[in-house]
Amino acid sequence: MDFDYVVIGAGSAGCAVAGRLSEDGRARVLLLEAGGSDRRLPILMPAATYLLAIGNPRYDWRYKAAADPTRNDRRDFMPRGKVLGGTSSINGMCYVRGQPEDFDVWAQMGCHGWDFASVLPYYKRAEDNENGADEYHGAGGPLSVSNIRSAHPLSEIFLQSCVNSGLPRKTDINRPPQDGIGFLQATQRGGWRCSAARAYLWPARRRSNLRVATHAHVERITFTGKRATGVEYVVAGRKLTAKASRAVVLCAGALASPQILMLSGIGPEAHLRTKGIPVLQDLPGVGENFHDHPGTSHTVWTRGKTYNVQRGFFQSMLYGAQWLLAGRGPGSTPDAHVIGFTRSRAELNRCDVQFHFTPAGYDLTENGPILFDRPAATGLINIHRPRSRGWIRLKSADPFEQPEIQPNLLGDEGDRETLIRGHRLMRRICETDPMARQVIGEFKPGSDVQTDDEWRAFVRETAMGFYHPAGSCKMGSDRMAVVDERLKLRGVEGLYVADASIMPIVVSGNLNATCIMIGEKCADMLKQAS
Asked: What's the CATH class of domain 149-183+294-383+411-462?
């Protein structure tokens, strides 16, 4: 049980870290994952994930946030992958990087080496883009990025209505500038999900220097003095310890990474003492700066058939065979077909609102997504770079109890107003031809939501985090920073954090691609330090 590196969490970043550190065949790497195998139909078949994996405790941590006073005490459901690949094994497979300005702002905040020019090579190195390599994309990397294989006709109709509403059509939503609307690219290979585990761990399964331990629940990081030297974890009720001679790399995600640090004695001193945890390092920023992309959903009833009514027994068998044999059809569909970015106000210098369009109608509830049983379509609206901040704290010193998560999602009034402006535009798009000819009614928000006060009430009642938690162990150089620009934990040796928690400000888009980039860059920095 002696290793050079112990990596905690086989999610988007953790798989990249472990895969890259072990590729030389010499460094001994242990990767710990609390979940099980990703070689299961609900993971590999994109459409099956929404029905069989999200909300299933076999694959999903099923986090539940505390009552949020900014939204009438709503309690968000927060799915996080509990399986090899982490959330990349149950997410919507949207390959979105964010804006170059996101990373340039990180660098201006003291995160040297994280400007866009510095991170772009890591995006490209990870990527195997179906359209080939160019100045913004890579080919031959482990992560397969593919064009959508079987777009629903309604998706093209919606896209054209966006264009008719003033959004420019884009053939590549990841090519700056971000403004515009287009079909997404998905993290798929041949219509099958390409999670971080499939990208980095499947090719590495024969490496003798990489050990992947599943169903391994980490209790705490161990130290000699102030140097991280190993990890204590539990498998099937048995407590085990693994030693790390070079480094422990924490990649458990924005919800679990601060929890593990606090359980290990690293965090706000006063809070740790209330839980009876001996304080190793007082770091007040652990668990703070927590934020997500606030969003709402716009659902309309449609004339033509959508995926809502294309799931009977015989249709499911047909679509399953189509996916299995050809990697096409509804079984291959990612969460959204169309992705768009725009500005809530014309005077802004960059986009602050994102759209996802799905040719299926569903509702996002406190207990998870609910699919309707009649033809419908849903457009999601979320804002980028919110100013609202929440926090994550321990409920107790029990490592098996979920942490206390307070999103404080709409704590900033400006976030709420931006979201309303974005949702008004979504309504206008659905009222524009050719989409307008397909809509027979608006379910949500409904025709009774018209005035500013009615919109504010609607947002308070329905807004939620869009499953993009970030920032709870932020990178930087100020007093509240948890890690430095090399992802090394402040105040201790041999401990690094690499996942969405290190983002000082969440990127302007879905998180999977950026988390993989963070893992790639972390592995590179660790190799340079060894």
From this structure: alpha beta
Taking only the tens place, the pLDDT of each residue in 96-148 is: 999 999 999 999 999 999 999 999 999 999 999 999 999 999 999 999 999 99
In sequence order, which ranges of 379-511 are alpha helices (DSSP H)?
A: 413-430, 452-462
According to the model, what pLDDT value does residue 316 have?
80
What pLDDT, in 10s, does the model give residues 431-486? 999 999 999 999 999 999 999 999 999 999 999 999 999 999 999 999 999 999 99
Q: What is the mean pLDDT of each run of 10 residues along the chain (530 residues)?
A: 96 98 96 98 94 95 98 96 98 97 97 98 98 98 96 96 97 96 97 98 96 98 98 97 98 98 98 98 98 97 88 79 91 94 97 97 86 94 98 98 98 97 98 98 96 97 97 97 98 98 98 98 94
Among candidates 24, 36, 148, 29, which has minimal Cα distance to 85?
36
Give ∠ CA 247-249-252 in degrees, rounded to 5. Answer: 160
In the chain, domain spans? 1-141+187-292+391-408+469-530, 149-183+294-383+411-462
**Among 137, 384, 423, 468, the one annotated catalytic:** 468
Find, among 141, 107, 28, the residue nearest to 530 by Cα: 28
Nearest to 170 by CA among 185, 156, 180: 180
Gap between the Cα atoms of 475 and 146, Å rounded: 31
Residue 229 contacts residue 223 (beta carbons within 8 Å): yes
| Residue type for position 109 | M
* Residues 389, 393, 399, 401, Cα dihedral to 10°: -80
217 is catalytic: no
The CA dihedral of 256, 260, 263, 265, to the nearest 10 degrees, is -130
Distance separating alpha carbons of residues 198 and 200, to the nearest angstrom: 6
The residue among 163, 464, 49 whose CA lies nearest residue 297 is: 464
268 vs 287: CA distance, rounded Å: 9
Query: What CATH code would you report for 1-141+187-292+391-408+469-530?
Result: 3.50.50.60
Residue 527 to residue 530: CA distance in whole angstroms = 5
pTM over 0.70: yes
B/e letters for 423-439, b = 16+ CB within 10 Å, e = fewer, are: bebbbebbebeebeebb
